């Protein structure tokens, strides 16, 4: 159900929007956990390590796709916050065309480089055949992944974070069943696990399209909307490409970590893979608050509510820090028991190393919490330079730790690569957002007024926000506040400054 994020208590609106994202991420991570459990139990540690060895390469390209499609939804959220129905539709059309073009390129090219890329990453020879098969099948299904991410993003952009959760849950249940069938019953190996995920994502795309067709007229694109302008394409690329490159930059650092792990042997790869499966649940919680902050900020920017942006980001930061502590403590105390869910007896060395990684991450999750919220807020405001720069910092810190500390201390040194990357990014983000916080404080508060084509909500508030159960369809007189001209000048000035930077 579409709803605005520009009314209601900021912390409550962000939390209510984030909860379905949290659940969705947990569900998604759980079906990845299910893959790991089925592969690890039925095919053994070597196959589990082979799947883990593909993670950085998949993240490099599919992470780029996720970042780009999420970025394409930022202009949609800003237009929705501004109550500009035509701009929402044209943004959806632009994002759809760009997503389709990138899907074709990724699906056609990525499978061809899978094997050579894994060899370049020094994947252990005994893992290479299964790792290559898993990667190629995953890349062949890249279009399904991209379009599901994009459709979920534009549905969230209009304030609905619950519907993508429903479709994702159904997809995950299907994925778990297919993994058990294809790996455990049919014996298709790691390729079956990859194929199950592709099929599940394709089903999710179909569900999203049908939902939009039946229930979300705000996202119905008209024939004229497909004739997108060069300016609209450039605007979406301006936001989407940096978010995609940021994910890829982070992935390059992850690739370096993978190389360091490969040099340490299959047990090190298995330990890191197993700990990452558990760790990903924590990252999912914190990433959801970051995404909620991004959409909240974008809608309130479109709605001319800088005061709500300031309060909301501060409150979201404290929510994220509290969540980080609540997650980190169990990882510190019960890491070994969690790792035992993935590996059987006779793997004490793998268990000990994986538990150590969970302990180190548990102590440093607060820095990751601040990173996600502040970076999401800056992206929602349309900034690209600082978020991208933080990705570069993460790359430098992660590569440096993997190479220098890994050589000096082995697996322990590699484990510290992620926490050091988070801390390095936060060092830049805090002063960057503090400047933006002060700038927002100087802006006038001017909620969007009604126009002759703006639907007027007459039922609400619900759950800290507004729902539209009926609209006024006649012409509505517009009385523009005296601060309107000043606001437009400030917004134009900010856009000019960003373009110059």
Automatic annotation (TrEMBL):
It is a multi-pass membrane protein. The keyword Cytoplasm does not apply. The keyword ATP-binding does not apply. Keywords: Cell membrane, Membrane, Transmembrane, Transmembrane helix, Transport. It comes from the Bacteria. The chain crosses the membrane at residues 45-74, 95-114, 134-153, 165-186, 192-212, 239-261, 281-301, 313-334, 354-374, 395-413, 419-434. It is found in: Cell membrane. PANTHER family: MULTIDRUG RESISTANCE PROTEIN YPNP-RELATED (PTHR43549:SF3). This is MATE family efflux transporter. It comes from Agromyces soli.
């Amino acid at each position: 159900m579409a709803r605005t994020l520009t009314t209601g208590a900021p912390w409550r609106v962000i939390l209510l929007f984030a909860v379905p994202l949290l659940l969705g991420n947990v569900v998604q991570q759980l079906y990845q956990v299910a893959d790991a459990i089925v592969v690890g139990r039925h095919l053994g540690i070597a196959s589990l390590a082979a799947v883990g060895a593909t993670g950085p390469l998949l993240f490099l390209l599919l992470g780029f796709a996720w970042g780009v499609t999420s970025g394409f939804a930022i202009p949609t959220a800003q237009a929705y916050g501004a109550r500009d129905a035509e701009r929402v539709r044209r943004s959806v059309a632009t994002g759809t065309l760009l997503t389709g073009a990138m899907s074709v390129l990724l699906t056609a090219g990525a499978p061809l480089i899978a094997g050579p890329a894994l060899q370049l990453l020094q994947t252990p020879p005994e893992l290479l055949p299964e790792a290559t098969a898993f990667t190629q099948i995953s890349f062949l299904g890249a279009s399904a992944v991209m379009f599901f991410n994009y459709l979920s993003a534009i549905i969230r952009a209009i304030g609905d974070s619950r519907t993508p959760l429903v479709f994702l849950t159904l997809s995950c249940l299907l994925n778990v069943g297919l993994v058990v069938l294809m790996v455990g019953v049919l014996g298709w190996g790691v390729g079956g696990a990859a194929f199950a995920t592709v099929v599940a994502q394709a089903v999710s795309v179909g569900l999203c399209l049908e939902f939009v067709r039946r229930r979300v007229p705000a996202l119905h694109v008209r024939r004229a909307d497909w004739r997108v302008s060069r300016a609209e394409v450039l605007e979406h690329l301006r936001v989407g490409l940096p978010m995609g490159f940021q994910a890829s930059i982070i992935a390059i650092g992850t690739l370096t970590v993978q190389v360091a792990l490969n040099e340490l042997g299959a047990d090190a790869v298995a330990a890191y893979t197993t700990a990452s499966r558990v760790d990903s649940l924590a990252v999912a919680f914190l990433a959801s608050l970051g995404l909620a902050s991004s959409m909240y900020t974008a809608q309130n920017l479109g709605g001319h509510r800088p005061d709500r942006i300031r309060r909301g980001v501060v409150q979201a930061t404290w929510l994220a820090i509290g969540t980080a502590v609540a997650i980190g403590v169990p990882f510190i105390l019960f890491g070994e028991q969690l790792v035992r869910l993935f590996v059987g007896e006779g793997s004490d060395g793998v268990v000990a190393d994986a538990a150590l990684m969970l302990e180190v991450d548990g102590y440093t999750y607060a820095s990751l919490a601040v990173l996600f919220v502040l970076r999401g807020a800056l992206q929602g405001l349309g900034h690209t330079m600082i978020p991208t720069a933080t990705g570069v910092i993460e790359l430098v810190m992660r590569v440096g730790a993997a190479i220098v500390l890994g050589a000096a201390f082995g697996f322990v040194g590699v484990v510290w690569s992620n926490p050091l990357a988070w801390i390095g990014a936060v060092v830049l983000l805090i002063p960057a957002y503090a400047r933006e916080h002060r700038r927002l404080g100087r802006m006038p508060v001017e909620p969007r007024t009604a126009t002759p084509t703006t639907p007027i909500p007459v039922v609400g508030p619900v759950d800290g926000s507004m729902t539209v159960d009926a609209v006024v369809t006649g012409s509505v007189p517009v009385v523009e506040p005296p601060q309107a001209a000043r606001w437009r000048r400030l917004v134009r000035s900010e856009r000019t400054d960003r373009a110059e930077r």
